[in-house]
Amino acid sequence: MGEGGEVVVVVREFEPVKDRIGVEDVERNCDAGSNGKISIFTDLLGDPICRVRHFPAFLMLVAEMVTDKEERKIVGLIRGCINTVTCGKKLSRNGKNGSNDSFKPIPVYSKLAYVLGLRVSPSHRRMGIGLKLVSRMEDWFREKGAEYSYMATDKDNEASVKLFTDRCGYAKFRTPCILVQPVFAHRVSITKGICIFPISPSDAESLYRRRFSTTEFFPSDIDSILYNRLNLGTFVAVPSDGFSDSWPGVDDFLSKPPESWSVLSIWNSKEVFTMEVRGASRTIRGLAKTSRMVDRAFPWLGIPSVPELFRPFGFHFLYGLGGEGPDAVRLTKALCDFAHNVAKERGCGLVVTEVSSREPLRVGIPHWKRLSCDEDLWFMKRLGEDYSDGSVGDWTKSPCGVSIFVDPREI
Ligand SMILES: CC(C)(COP(=O)(O)OP(=O)(O)OC[C@H]1O[C@@H](n2cnc3c(N)ncnc32)[C@H](O)[C@@H]1OP(=O)(O)O)[C@@H](O)C(=O)NCCC(=O)NCCS
């Protein structure tokens, strides 16, 4: 940069060919660990918009420093996307044959924007660039008719928490937990007496819409997730006792459901980006390697080995977890074990899911506490004046429900 010359920061739309290298530099600088601390490096596999591109509307902005000599350098970036999701429910008359004595809950939808991947180069922080990127992104959200905006961050990320709460008007909204299970070198055995059925995307769509569309954050375009090539399938678990060997189809299943059942879907995040743990000591890496070697040599011992996280690895994300009945927790555990084995076959390092802190099925989800996050902070802000949330009122003030639907495209 020209010394003493004028420098301006321009925020503009990301241009894939021109900006890719500059954006990767910013990502790398932000990921770099300091003082020998362990850090996680994310590789977006050459596609900086990969984390938002599966949404119906998305935008990536970059902040570029421009000197009076026309030297340019990308120093910040932000991604955003917009989708229509459930923000609450209302009762609707279920007027069969003109009767009006039965009511059923139906979803109330709202247009929700999501901010993610905000980064400012360490050398250019505290200059107002982060704030400028967020406010320009919010302008686009409003232009597109989004009613709310939200973002997720780690509770220890003081810079991010302060920026969004003190300066951008966001308030703490939900605190779901991220549950992370390592993929071992051995297959996990699935509890006996449980049938697991893969179901088609169209059956999965019907099941989700009929049973979970009033869950907070349920995406109105669930079909585009289920038919996406990254979706590896939807699976239903039932106790094998008294249930036929084959999937009866969604209509029959829901007209006469077993006393307990459970469902989940698997999303292949490994195709979107990879991660790598850097900065771990030689001792930690050595211990991890030994545990894997022993697990691989004696898989029947079922040793909970540490996967190869010190070179690029991918993960599967489990979403749409739900179920009913007294045995739903055990069935959820079986589905997670099944998903572990799918992840092992496909060479993943981790299986990840995110659920509400009050989710009753949470106890059935195997995870390692040290790799998981008890409190992922979600902040929310109301963006404008005209709302479709109607009976729900101000969503930002609504109490936390039992479950939330975490969209795999946001991960
Ligand atoms: C969070 C981040 C984007 C902030 O970018 P930035 O350009 O430095 O932020 P700004 O200069 O616009 O800061 C605006 C306000 O945010 C708050 N803030 C920013 N950094 C802060 C810090 N390190 N500590 C406390 N408050 C901070 C302050 O209120 C600040 O206003 P002030 O400087 O007038 O006090 C940047 O620190 C970053 O890239 N961090 C790593 C990636 C990340 O955590 N991203 C967010 C998660 S999506």
Annotation keywords:
411 residues, alpha+beta, Aminopeptidase, 2 domains, 7-stranded mixed β-sheet, 6-stranded mixed β-sheet, 15 strands, binds coenzyme A
Structure description:
By secondary structure, this protein is an alpha+beta fold. Helices cover 24% and strands 32% of the residues. It has 8 helices and 15 strands. Strands 1-3-4-5-6-15-7 form a 7-stranded mixed β-sheet. It has a 6-stranded mixed β-sheet with strand order 8-14-13-11-10-9, with helices on both faces. It is globular, with a radius of gyration of 23 Å. It starts with 6 loop residues before the first strand and ends in a 29-residue tail after the last strand. The model has no long low-confidence stretch (mean pLDDT 90). Coenzyme A binds next to strand 5, helix 2 and helix 3. GO terms for molecular function: acyltransferase activity, transferring groups other than amino-acyl groups. InterPro entries: Acyl_CoA_acyltransferase, GNAT_dom, Plant_NAT. This is N-acetyltransferase domain-containing protein. Keywords: Acyltransferase, Transferase.
| Count of distinct strands | 15
CATH architecture of the largest domain: 3-Layer(aba) Sandwich
Fraction of residues in β-strands: 25-35%
The tally of domains stands at 2
Helix and strand sequence: EHEEEEHEHEEEHHEHEEHEHEE
GO molecular function: acyltransferase activity, transferring groups other than amino-acyl groups
Pfam families: Acetyltransf_1
Organism: Protea cynaroides
Keywords: Acyltransferase, Transferase
